[in-house]
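As a warm-up, study this chain.
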Amino acid sequence: MHLRSVSAALYLALCALTIVDALADWPPAVWAASSLVVVFLVLEGARIARLQALVGLALAGSGLLIAATQGALADTLVDGLRRTLPFLLLFASVTWLQIPAAQSPALLKVRAVALAQPPGRRFAVVGTAAHFLGVAFNLAGLSLLTPMVSRETPPSLRERLGRAMVQGFGAGTAWSPFYVGTAVILSAVPGVRWIEVAPVGLGLALLLVVWSWGFDRLFLRRGAQPTQPSGRTGPPPRLTGGDARNLAVLLGVLFGATILLVEGLLLSIPVSLAIVAPLFALGWAAVIRTHDPEANAGRVLIRTVYSKMPDLRGETLLFAGANILGVGVASALTPETVAGAVDTVAGIAWLAVPLLMLGMVGGSMLGLHPVVFVVLVTSVLPPETLGLTPQIMALAMMSMWGQSTNSSPFSATSLFMARITGDSNWRIAWRWNAPFAVTATGLLALVLVLIDALGVYGA
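Now compare it with the structure written out below.
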């Protein structure tokens, strides 16, 4: 059997075992799935991109070294791998959605409309499209807009549209359950349900999209812009009532089925999406094929997804390393010690909220992936220590996850945009997004402090 086939089978097996444990509460499944993560990384290690390999190994090595000084080496490794499993489910789910998303007439129409916008409203339309495509389909949705920021697009326009894309996309972590960060934060902060925080999170996300446009208009837009990006040909299309109906059905079915499992069976978001995504993708592909016989059939979709599983090697190592580091650092800290260190801000929301958010985005700008921050904070700093409700704490980190990944040179978003645009991932993180992220942090912190003061989520 070809090595890629073995790796693909291992990845799908560890996903299946993680789902089995969630449904049947069978601990041996978690042990087996964690072991398969290690085997998968060993088989695919030589093919991991150099930067991802260096960062992932550095994160894991640092976490294990810290844990060793505390006599918790084995526990840290096991717990770090266990915490990585939900991420891997989400990566696999997004892979299932990528193929039909790239062929969907409704989504391709959205892309065409965004490409056709005149300069006066193009930034706002692109940011809004990136947000809602990302909300439903994660990076699969963002990838639909990549023709407008290809290397053939004039550099100044490419940067503006690239910022619109990633900032609109990043705002989705404030409320969409289909983002890695959102799902992990909701799982890590005790006592928080998606349905409780989603309405406020949606408001925060829309505020971010509007502020992204405002920030560009006030501080960054200079002079005349090229009229059209690459990929724009023919007369400008229009979204019809039928297009809007098709999009509403797509989003409604995907969200509805996933949240039904979350709220009805009390499954986690990663597990729910991992169950829904393959069935949804196969049904979606079948519907597309009735209109376009050249589109992928179900068998082709399954083979394509299977062939793409080994390509998740880099993400697997990065997130395993980040989780191991977070658990390792947490092993060296006690909740009592941390509580004493933050005693001066405990119970003072106007201090605790912005400091929490600045710590998350600031660490990411320095290269520390936000998953490390989330694992560390939720392990040693429960909400009551800061005098915050669990919902406010979760919203603070959810709204910051997108800003943090956009500002991190090592995040999947920055690396993805660097590959598409040909720009440096460092420049994308620190020049494209960091200035906006700093102002957005202040704005979001102010709103969350007001929400806390109004007692929306109780005392």
